Amino acid sequence: IVLAAEAVMTLLATPSLQSAWRDGFKDGFRYGRTTSFEGCDFAVGRLPAPENSCDAVKDVYVDNMGLSWREAAALMGVHSLGRAKVENSGYIGWWSTPDHSRIFNNNYFVSIFAKGWCPNLNVNGCSDADEARGACSKKNQWQLCDIHRDSEHRTHEMMLDTDMCLAYSDQDGGLLQARDDPCCAWEDTISDTFSMVKILENNGNYLCGAKCGEDVSARYGLFGNLECHRTGHFGQGSKEFKICCALEPDRLDCGTPGHGRTRVGGPAAAEAKLFAEDEEIWQQDFLVAWKKATENGFALGLSPLRNRC
Fold first, then answer.
1. Residue 281 CA from chain centroid, whole number
2. Where would I find the beta strands (DSSP E) of the chain?
3. What is the pTM of this model?
4. How far is CA 147 from CA 115, 144, 150, 236, 293, in A?
5. Residues 6+ away with beta carbon under 8 Å from 291
6. What percent of the chain shows pLDDT beyond 70?
């Protein structure tokens, strides 16, 4: 299973980094894991429960598996690939655009910061009566609330609480949870302590669906151009809010590392930002986290590959 996962990640990686992924996985691989054929019921609940936000990330990755917050954030980058479906998990959508979700890269982290996000509640349609009798539980996630949002699930972009909480907090600096926090999570470009220059470069110089330098008067009903990175220009910050939270403009800001009533952000905001800025740094940290995760519980029974048989 580990070999299959590493093969998929390597084949779908950014072409310029494929050889580095291949060599990194090969150098770190150790064999000897046992495979269970009796079912894996024991594994239920061992992944972070999305509704529990970063409490779950801490319980599973930091406390149980011994990862640092930086390694935990790096490992969450596996969401670069694939999608969620209601019939599987109760959640729905891609962690990025459908095209990017076919590439193993750092766009997951770029999307967290370069787009605007708002709660999307009870996406699985669980009724109060069904939840009360234990037939289902309501699933809550985050959806785009900037002008780029596609309301159809065909190309629906989303994040889970366990993704968003890495970078954002609630309005008072506490745990961010979609079901409890009716706020808009976004990052402006005018902060003098949280530069967005490299992140937007990795997003084609788009902020929340609008291109830096674009005349936003016609498309968004705002005045003039979107002039990104005008540090300290608060009028520009207001314009960016209206773009990033365009579809739900009455919401307050979530807690972010760069602006708003609190600049606390999430427990891995600096690390997620670094990974959004530099794919190679994320790759290096992911390889370390992946090795720890896939060897967890087998440390004494694994052997390194030999150069030849």
1. 16
2. 30-31, 83-84, 93-94, 117-120, 141-144, 158-159, 183-184, 206-207, 210-211, 252-253, 303-304
3. 0.92
4. 9, 8, 9, 17, 38
5. 28
6. 90
Q: How many helices (H) and strands (E) does the chain have?
A: 13, 11
Predicted confidence band of residue 246 (pLDDT cuts 50, 70, 90): confident
Beta-bridged to residue 185, according to DSSP, are: 117
- Alpha helices (H) along 137-227: 161-164, 197-201, 217-220
Give buried/exposed letters for 185-224 (b at 16+ CB in 10 A, else e). bbbbbbbeebebeebbebbebbbbbbbbebebeeebebee
The residue-averaged pLDDT of 76-100 equals: 92
Alpha-carbon distances, residue 143 vs 105, 130, 154 (angstroms): 21, 24, 13
Most confident of 1-5, 32-36, 122-126, 233-237: 122-126
If one counts every other C-beta atom within 10 angstroms of the C-beta of residue 293, the result is 18
pLDDT of residue 152 exceeding 60, the answer is: no
What is the DSSP secondary structure assignment for residue 254, as one 8-state letter? P
Q: What is the spatial distance between Cα 231 and Cα 189, in angstroms, rounded to a whole number? A: 7
Q: Which helix (H) or strand (E) holds 27?
A: helix 18-28
Cα–Cα distance measured from residue 77 to residue 205, given in angstroms and rounded to the nearest whole number: 21
Give the burial class of 30: count Cβ atoms within 10 A of its Cβ; 0-12 exposed, 13-18 middle, 19 or more buried: middle
Task: Give the number of other CB atoms < 10 A from CB of residue 303.
Answer: 8
Which residues share a beta bridge with 169?
Answer: 255
